[in-house]
Specification:
The protein has a single domain, classed as 2-enoyl-CoA Hydratase, Chain A, domain 1 (Alpha-Beta Complex), CATH 3.90.226. The protein starts with a strand and ends in a 9-residue tail after the last helix. Strand 2, helix 1 and strand 3 form a beta-alpha-beta unit. It has ten helices and nine strands. The protein is of the alpha/beta class. Helix 1 runs parallel beside helix 3. The strands form two sheets. A six-stranded mixed sheet has the order 1-2-3-4-6-9, with helices on both faces. Strands 5-7-8 form a three-stranded mixed sheet. Helix content is 46%, strand content 16%. The chain is globular.
C-alpha cells in the first residue's frame, strides 16, 4: 500500500506535507489520517523542521472524510479512533502550521484548515460544512475562534459554501493568491516566521493554543467524541460525516 502523503524538508527548516489522494479529492481516509498524525509526530521532535506548510495534490485541498469507509460498519471504531488521534495531533503540533488551500476545503477539510495557525487560499478555494445536510453536526469551536461565533454558527447550520473572497473578508484566510502563486506565497509566509528564534515560535504557539475560553479538548469531547459515540451506538447513515 502506497503512502497517501508526500513530504519535503527545505534546508532552512520549512517542511511541506501534501495530501496525496487527488483521485479522491484528498478525502481523509483512515490511512491518510494516520499518516498525517505520524508525520506530524515525527516532525514535532525533529529540530530540522521549524515550520510546516500543508496543502493538497490536484484541484482540491480536502473534500472531508472518506465516505466510502463510513459505508462499512466494521470500520466504525477505527474511523472514530483514528479521527481522534489525527485531530488532536494537528491541534497539538508545537510548531507553526500553515495551510495552502489550493481548492475546496469542505467538512473535515475545513476542520483541517482551521486547526492550522494560518491559511493562504487560492482564488478558486471554497470552504463549507456540507455534512450538516447528511445529518452530522459540524465542529464549531475552532471555526468560531477564527471568524467569530456569528459567522461560524451560520456556516455550521446552513452548510453553505464560502468562496475565497468572502473567506478573506471574514478573516478565515490571511490572503488570496492566484493558483500558480499559492505555494510560493505560503512558503514566503513560513520563511517570515522562521526569522524568529524557534523557542519564541513554539512559545507563542503554546500561548495561542492555550488562550481560548475553553480548551480544545473540552470542546472536542462534545463536538467529536460524543458525535462518534452516538454513531457507534446507532449508526446515522453512511454519509453521516466527513
Amino acid at each position: 500500500m502506497g503512502r497517501d502523503i508526500a513530504v519535503d524538508i527545505a534546508g532552512d527548516g520549512v517542511a511541506t506535507l501534501t495530501l496525496a489522494r487527488p483521485e479522491r479529492r484528498n478525502a481523509l481516509s483512515i490511512q491518510l489520517r494516520e499518516e498525517i498524525a505520524a508525520q506530524l509526530g515525527q516532525w514535532a521532535a525533529d529540530p530540522a523542521v521549524r515550520v510546516v506548510v500543508l496543502t493538497g495534490a490536484g484541484s482540491s485541498f480536502c473534500a472531508g472524510f472518506d465516505l466510502d469507509e463510513f459505508a462499512q460498519a466494521g470500520l466504525a471504531r477505527r474511523i472514530r479512533d483514528s479521527s481522534r488521534r489525527y485531530h488532536l495531533a494537528v491541534w497539538a503540533f508545537p510548531k507553526p502550521l500553515l495551510a495552502a488551500v489550493n481548492g475546496p476545503a469542505l467538512a473535515g477539510g475545513l476542520d483541517l484548515c482551521v486547526l492550522c495557525d494560518c491559511r493562504v487560499a487560492s482564488a478558486g478555494a471554497v470552504f463549507g460544512h456540507p455534512e450538516i445536510k447528511f445529518g452530522a453536526p459540524p465542529m464549531f469551536t475552532p471555526l468560531q475562534w477564527i471568524v467569530g461565533a456569528g459567522v461560524a454558527r451560520e456556516l455550521c447550520l446552513t452548510g453553505r459554501r464560502m468562496d475565497a473572497t468572502e473567506a478573506l473578508r471574514a478573516g478565515l484566510v490571511s490572503r488570496v493568491t492566484e493558483p500558480g502563486r499559492l505555494l510560493d506565497e505560503t512558503l514566503a509566509m513560513a520563511r517570515t516566521m522562521i526569522e524568529a528564534p524557534q523557542a519564541a515560535l513554539e512559545g507563542t504557539k503554546r500561548y495561542l493554543t492555550g488562550s481560548a475560553g475553553v480548551t480544545f479538548e473540552q470542546a472536542f469531547a462534545a463536538e467529536h467524541d460524543a458525535v462518534f459515540d452516538e454513531f457507534l451506538a446507532g449508526p446515522i447513515g453512511p454519509r453521516a460525516a466527513r
